């Protein structure tokens, strides 16, 4: 790994933070960025740029982490993002957080568990920097998560409500629960309230120790209202693709190892090391393509369904390989890092303009099908920070 040393990774992380700092919108929140780093106009009603909840929150998370690298704008960007969560995304009448907003107010007024998970993640990381509104943000979103989304049996969250919390969701999904697990672990790390760790254990136990284990370490993504696996779910290509998503199995592997560490390697988390090994190994075996990169989705028949090559599964594989090495002490888990970083370096890292290309075509050239421009910094920064000393 001499080519992708900790110094190289640190420099790439700072490069990402420099590039995405251009996303700060003076009117609140953050712009989407075009491939060259300029503002990407995307609002059909012409009231300023659309700010989506996961983008606002992930920027807060990224720059809170960037503070550990002494990025000069880290605290400013975190405070800016938290301000817009409260002034632009928070619904003062019904509670909860709108999915998207622009200069004129809310656009998509739905209340999504996925987005609320990221609000908790942002609050936890903002609190680490001493943001004065972080505790308020935590209290608001935890009220929604406990009282609106949480379902005691099975111990997981439902998905999407209308603005006024009517029209309860018919869909139950793994993605929102995976990111809520991430957020709960961050919240526990920040505030040490055992409720957060308990909720994370419940979700991980249901999604991974129960369902993924039963499916040979393939992670089910979609469920019926009574929490049966929905193998026929048609989905949407960005957040709910049909079939299974190997990148999520890889991401889950890292999260359950983090859960074990935060839980003090308690015996009740002993299952996570075996599970993480299997999740990562199965996903890499099934989905790594001969031309490089991980296939986006698999069918329930075990065959590749969608060969679309995105940046984020490979970035998550970098982080999980490091997590497995730390958990086991076995350097065999580092064997994939060279091919993972070589692929990212060759095809996804934009060495001219900065940032990472989201997708490449069959010839390895950047394309924009699912994501316009350069998506947020979240996954790329996770990979870049994974190899740094803790």
Would you report the number of β strands? 15
Q: How would you sum up the major sheet? A: 4 strands, antiparallel
Give the helix proportion (percent range): 40-55%
The value of Rg in angstroms is 19 Å
Structural class: alpha+beta
Q: Which band does the percent of strand residues land in?
A: 5-15%
Mean pLDDT: 96
Helical stretch count? Answer: 12
Low-confidence stretches: none
Helix-strand string: HEEEHHEEEHHEEEEHHEHHEEHHEEH
Name the shape in a single word. globular
Strand adjacency order, main sheet: 12-13-14-15
Compute the separation of the termini in Å: 18 Å
Relevant terms:
390 residues, 48% helix, alpha+beta, three-stranded antiparallel beta sheet
Q: Topology of this structure?
A:
Layout lengths: L5 H15 L11 E2 L5 E2 L10 E2 H14 L7 H16 L10 E3 L2 E2 L4 E2 H16 L5 H16 E2 L4 E2 L2 E2 L10 E2 H18 L2 H21 L7 E2 L22 H17 L8 H17 L7 E4 L5 E7 H18 L8 H12 L10 E2 L5 E2 L10 H9 L4
Antiparallel strand pairs: 1-2, 3-4, 4-5, 6-9, 7-8, 10-11, 12-13, 13-14, 14-15
Helix pairs in contact: 1-12, 2-3, 2-4, 3-4, 4-5, 4-6, 6-7, 6-8, 7-8, 7-9, 8-9, 8-10, 9-10, 10-11, 10-12
Question: Can you offer a commentary on this structure?
Answer:
- The protein has 390 residues and is of the alpha+beta class.
- The strands form six sheets. A four-stranded antiparallel β-sheet has the order 12-13-14-15.
- Helix 2 (53-66) packs parallel to helix 4 (113-128) and helix 7 (194-214) crosses helix 9 (271-287).
- It has helices at 6-20, 53-66, 74-89, 113-128, 134-149, 174-191, 194-214, 246-262, 271-287, 311-328, 337-348, 378-386; strands spanning 32-33, 39-40, 51-52, 100-102, 105-106, 111-112, 150-151, 156-157, 160-161, 172-173, 222-223, 295-298, 304-310, 359-360, 366-367.
- Strand 1 and strand 2 form a beta hairpin.
């Amino acid at each position: 790994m001499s080519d992708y040393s900790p110094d190289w990774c640190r420099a790439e992380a700072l490069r990402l933070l420099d590039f995405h700092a251009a996303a700060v919108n003076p009117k609140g929140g953050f712009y989407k960025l075009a491939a060259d780093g300029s503002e990407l106009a995307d609002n059909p009603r012409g009231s300023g740029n659309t700010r989506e909840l996961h983008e606002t929150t992930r920027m807060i998370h990224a720059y809170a982490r960037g503070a550990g690298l002494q990025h000069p704008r880290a605290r400013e960007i975190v405070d800016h993002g938290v301000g817009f969560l409260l002034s632009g995304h928070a619904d003062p009448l019904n509670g909860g957080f709108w999915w998207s907003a622009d200069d004129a107010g809310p656009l998509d007024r739905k209340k999504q568990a996925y987005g609320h998970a990221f609000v908790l993640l942002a609050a936890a990381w903002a609190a680490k920097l001493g943001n004065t509104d972080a505790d308020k943000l935590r209290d608001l979103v935890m009220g929604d998560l406990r009282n609106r989304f949480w379902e005691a049996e099975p111990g997981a969250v439902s998905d999407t409500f209308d603005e006024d919390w009517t029209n309860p969701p018919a869909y139950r999904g793994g993605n929102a629960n995976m990111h809520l697990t991430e957020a709960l672990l961050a919240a526990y790390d920040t505030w040490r309230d055992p409720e957060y760790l308990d909720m994370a254990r419940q979700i991980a136990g249901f999604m991974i120790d129960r369902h993924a284990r039963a499916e040979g370490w393939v992670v089910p993504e979609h469920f019926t209202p009574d929490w049966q696996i929905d193998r026929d779910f048609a989905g949407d290509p960005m957040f709910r693709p049909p079939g299974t998503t190997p990148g999520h199995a890889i991401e889950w592997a890292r999260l359950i190892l983090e859960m074990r560490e935060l839980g003090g390697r308690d015996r009740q988390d002993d299952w996570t090391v075996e599970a993480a090994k299997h999740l990562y190994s199965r996903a890499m075996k099934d989905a790594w393509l001969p031309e490089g990169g991980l296939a986006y989705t698999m069918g329930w028949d075990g065959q590749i369904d969608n060969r679309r090559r995105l940046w984020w599964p490979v970035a998550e594989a970098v982080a999980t390989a490091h997590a497995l090495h730390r958990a086991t002490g076995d350097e065999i888990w580092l064997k994939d890092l060279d091919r993972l970083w070589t692929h990212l370096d060759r095809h996804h890292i934009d060495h001219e303009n900065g940032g990472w290309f989201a997708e490449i075509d069959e010839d390895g050239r950047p394309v924009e099908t699912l994501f316009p421009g350069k998506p947020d910094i979240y996954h790329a920064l996770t990979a870049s920070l994974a190899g740094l000393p803790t």
